[in-house]
Write a structure and sequence with these properties.
The strands form 3 sheets. The chain has a 5-stranded mixed sheet. A 3-stranded mixed sheet has the order 8-9-10, with helices on one face. The protein has a two-stranded antiparallel sheet with strand order 6-7. The model has no long low-confidence stretch (mean pLDDT 89). Helix 4 packs across helix 5. The protein has 2 domains: 126 residues, Rossmann fold, CATH 3.40.50; 77 residues, NAD(P)-binding Rossmann-like Domain (Rossmann fold, 3-Layer(aba) Sandwich), CATH 3.40.50. The longest helix has 21 residues. With 221 residues, it is an alpha/beta fold. It contains 6 helices and 10 strands; from the N terminus they run βββαβαβαββαβαββα.
Amino acid sequence: MYDEFGPEKITILSNPQVNMKSILVIDNSAYGVPAGGIRFAQNITISEIVRLSRAMTLKFSTFGLPAGGAKSGLIGDPLDKNRDLLITSFALSLAPFIKEKVYYPGPDMGTYDTDLERIFNIIGMPELTPRKIGLMIDDIPIEELFTGYGVVNCLDTILQYSNQNTKKSKPKIILEGFGKVGTSIAMYLRELNYKLTGISTIKGAIYDEDGLNIDELLKLK
């Protein structure tokens, strides 16, 4: 769980009065304020958040960005009727870390832009919301765009290498999921002229042999 690069800090944050339990991991602050999303799920573990915080360190350093790696996890059901109460309690627990520039949170699985706005408003720092400091592009958190960019470029590199001695055309792509990361993958597939023919989510699926219109799908989200 530990190596010469981190994590620097593992903190358990809780409030028994509202049954709020959470984990904050600061992996590495060498390149700047550690940043990473808030994962909200029932089966979160410390080892998972440690691993994800390291992924953020690697992600930011790969792109040469002045930020360190971190991640936090709010343990619970994101559909809980007391969701707002849990988010409020979590925000108050995070406040000193955000104010002291130890951690900058973002959205992740189970959390949304509205949750981030709520957190920054609760701690009295609304000017730090991702949208206001330019960390959103087309309503997608910039860190999720990095993830999609990495996935698509890995795919493109592998295909170029495997097809270097052939004249195969680019394959058609079917995408599982159209959330934060899935959306960014679709956007970068479009930029590299891949044909996205299908998308499936927990709500259903859509398929078109001739290719889906990504711009229209983004408008419908």
